[in-house]
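Lecture 7 notes: from sequence to structure.

We start with a single chain of 259 residues. Read the sequence below before looking at the structure.
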Amino acid sequence: MPRPTMHGVGWLTLLYKELLRFWKVSFQTVAAPVLTALLYLLIFSHVLEGRVSVFGGRVSYTAFLIPGLVMMAVLQNAFANSSSSLIQSKITGTLIFVLLSPLSPLDMFAAYVLGSMVRGLVVGIGVFLVTLWFSPVAPVQPLWALAFALLGSAILGSLGLIAGICADKFDQVAAFQNFLIMPLTFLSGVFYSIHTLPPFWQTLSHFNPFFYMIDGFRYGFFGLSDVDPSKSLAIVAMSCLLLSALTLALLQRGYKLRH
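Now the structure, written as tokens:
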């Protein structure tokens, strides 16, 4: 069994292909998610501004909402990039050319996940720049925000690869998105502080890894969070390592790839 080591710069070619893939249709892959996030901001800030208190009133609701929307865009688009790329390659039969190339499992993992991270971060930056018009906020702890953005996009890029590996058609990837990624994202505290929830739902939120990504990223903006950011960083980093190891194992075995 081959070891997951990187060979040469072949993975950079695959990464370049992944970057071109989403950038050539940037109106759909970048502009559309930015518009969706903007609509969320307009609707929720208009309805709930002045009615919802967060962090004891130290942060306005609109400002509170912006980091959550930015991180949500990063996560969802990182997942969409790797999952759609892999399932499209499987269905069209072009994946065989990747498998026949002298690329190791680690090469493939690096190219797909890094491509997903770039798309997620590009969309996140776009959302942040657009929302500055409504509430100018700047990270007070930028390194914390960057760490959670990088780890979060890597986690969702890995999850996207797992979904693409396990799925045989687009419907199965869509089910993964609709029944796992979307619920975990919307229940992670993007639109609310978990301290506004009843005790049962507060406890349940602590079992959602997406909550720690959103809360830690928001800490980078305000220096305020619902849980200790060090705890969030440890949980997110561990999740990234475990999912990366699982994804590499699936790639190394060729699970549902070598038909």
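The chain is about 75% helix and 0% strand. Keep this in mind for problem set 3.
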